């Protein structure tokens, strides 16, 4: 079912959103847009503000300033909705937003089928459309054989799939996923990415936070880099790599793992921590390798390996923030 917006604008439109907790600014004026059918990956280190932003878009938190619209309609936080929540649900048909936060939100003691029914009903689905939605979603997330089991009796990966199923059962126009693959094994991760790709291909706008840069490439997602509550850069992976990525040559030397690499006197060179490898940022890799060989030869240092590092999201992040992106820090 294709999702259309009330206007020609993006499905999700976030403008100048700011949020502080006490005196700590978590978001400092964020602008972000996601079109129908587009996957946007929100990248940033721990504490960058990703979850805060996603929960504001989900209507779970109030921004201090700025606006969020989904399909042209303003998102109101839980406090502002207050007693009108039911009226909103009744008036608006199935909810436009599906949200899967970091913690699994399915009820552990209720079967997967009843969980999916419940989440479908909460979004306004009833009768045959609800039954079809539950069956279709279970199929999509390979839960069909697990519908009569309770989440407390499922494996971690199965429970995570049930959690995502609860967020998509009503076929939201906008899907918010906050680190959906955190701790998932390779197979579960691949399945979840496949589901996200399919939903996007059918017209769902997806906003996705992750610490795994490889997933961003696998999803061919548009990237928004958030750092300290601000958008540092946005664009496609190739575009960002070309604009901000580094090309470098990494050179390993005999005996350097213990003693550290030799000082070749090349400006900008850094030692890769704990490896004895020298990283040399450069524009012309062939010229850099020839230069290294000459200088190493003069010092009597024996080269044991050379690797060319192409621009990547990792190096984009390093350029923009001056820090490495720690993928396991989720
Ligand atoms: N409920 C809260 N009360 C006080 N401070 C908070 C609260 N939630 C988040 N923060 C702070 O706001 C900042 C942004 O946190 P947020 O959880 O949005 O970051 P994140 O990018 O999602 O991080 P992570 O990758 O670790 O999940 C951090 O400094 C965090 O400590």
Automatic annotation (TrEMBL):
UniProt keyword annotations, A-Z: Antibiotic resistance, ATP-binding, Nucleotide-binding, Transport
Protein name listed in UniProt: ATP-binding cassette domain-containing protein
Topology class, membrane: Peripheral membrane protein
Source organism: Actinomadura yumaensis
Keyword Transcription: no
Entry's Gene Ontology molecular function annotations: ATP binding
Ranges for region Disordered: 76-97
Family: Belongs to the ABC transporter superfamily.
Record-annotated ABC transporter domain positions: 12-253
Keyword Zinc-finger (UniProt): no
One Pfam family it belongs to: ABC_tran
Subcellular location: Cell membrane
